[in-house]
Design goal:
alpha+beta; Elongation Factor Tu (Ef-tu), domain 3; elongated
Amino acid sequence: MTVIVGGGAAGFFAAINLAEAAPGESVILLEKTRNPLAKVRISGGGRCNTTHACFDPRELSTRYPRGGKALIGPLTRFGPRETIAWFEARGVRLKTESDGRMFPTTDSSQTIIDCLLRSAEKAGVRILEFTGLDSAKRRAGGGFTLKLSNSTTLECDHLVWAAGGCKAGPHPAAALGHTVVPPVPSLFTFHIESPWLRALSGLSVPDAAASIPGTPLKERGPILITHTGLSGPCILRLSAWGARTLHEKSYRFPLRIDWFPGQTPHQIQQSLQALRETHGARTLLRTAWNPLPARLWESLLAQAGIPADARWSTLSREQSQSLARTLSGTEFEVSGKSMNKEEFVTSGGIPLPEVDLKTMQSRIAPGLYFAGEALDIDGITGGYNFQAAWTTAWHVARSIASTTR
């Protein structure tokens, strides 16, 4: 018998693949709530960013702030191409968007949920809702005795920990000899107490760069201005790479935004000087020479101390320098965070040296396996965390199935 803890993407994928590969194996899936696959439902804005169209394992591994190099081998054996084929074999077609993200063609996460639930039922997986794992003890002859949250006990030969994120109380794996890297949030938005910025809520910039002074953290991409501060792919990637650093800073740190990435302040100033010579009679506000939204451009002019109705012919050298500095490095103070659209990704979990990454089996407690966010692996936004879940869960299933033949 195999017991899998955690009714999320990794837990279901491991259960289905194991039950299909080893029909005689009894597979029980524990879910402590009444809502299995809850994170799948809200992921990708309700569309489920299932994977990413990056088929080179080495390139794909660079999208994981933690655990990327260790994933190269597992991704070679089961990566996005295999994920696409797995879902298509079960009637779910995926589509690729311009940025490489892949979603079901229905644009609904319910499609993925229905597929997993249907596949689990067909494979004979037994799902126990409102049932969590309180503790696990190794049996003398192998396997485990489990104490469940409903005060019952269960015996099993194989135990799979696929419950990711933060867990209150002692981690069951710690009692079996493992260390646990304390989970901290990843993929979050930044709170910025700036009235002029918050007044621009809803505006987006297709290409900007964000950096955190005093650290090597820097990202480039789309930025979204929200009612609490800044979000968008650029900010989310920055939060992922800086998850532990920003946690240590209690989510209070300086942030610099370069609205014209790829151009130095000197180059920007040269462009401003050229406009002064060719558009002298026009106001700065009415000159569409940049990709910034008009309201943001007006606000940045104000931050540089330049009236919106100022004409290019009146722009002084000092004003030009001030504007160039503002455009290439507007500084904010971040005062907190919010999770991205209720999605919850964490950095932390079981250290990878304690796991055989060919099988996902514990090097410390034989018969214990890990999948998904239970491991100290996390990716940036874009379908990478789901791919890590599918990959590690598939390896768990393959490994356990090989022992039952």
